Amino acid sequence: MNPPFVRGDRVRWDTTGDDGLPLTHYGFIGGRVDSGGRVVVMLDGHLKGDTVVAAEELLAVSVLTVTMHFDDDTLVDDPGLRQGLVGLWVAEAERAGLVVENLDPLGTGVLDTVEGGFALAEFWAGGQPYVLRATVGQAGLCVRADLPRRWEFG
Q1: In the prediction, which pLDDT does 138 show?
Q2: Rounded to whole angstroms, how far apart are CA atoms 115 and 10?
Q3: Is-above-0.90 flag for pTM?
């Protein structure tokens, strides 16, 4: 459940394009949520700022909500491709308007025995440490930031 949005909140909207491919848009809340649960969003790159979206379709942008999903979970099988996932995720985080600091890639990744994927990098954002992880599930590969476990940061 999303918190109530207010004007100026940074949001993410995942939708599907006319061609059936997934699209991720970022923008700012441009007004109050109306009685129908819709809100005006000023999407990045759209000058009009008149896109109306159901508030339930929006996510507040944070380091923890920037995720990348891939149908091909074999991307984690190749060490070189695992390294490339770090750059892709950082580019997506920057597109979302986040600042990633002190990025420290963990070589070709460290096997994550808890979640069954790989820890790919350590970084800081907003004064908080994070770990970038690649995990494989039923929906495919997910690359996302997570809070570090106590033993991961020294």
Answers
A1: 84
A2: 29
A3: no
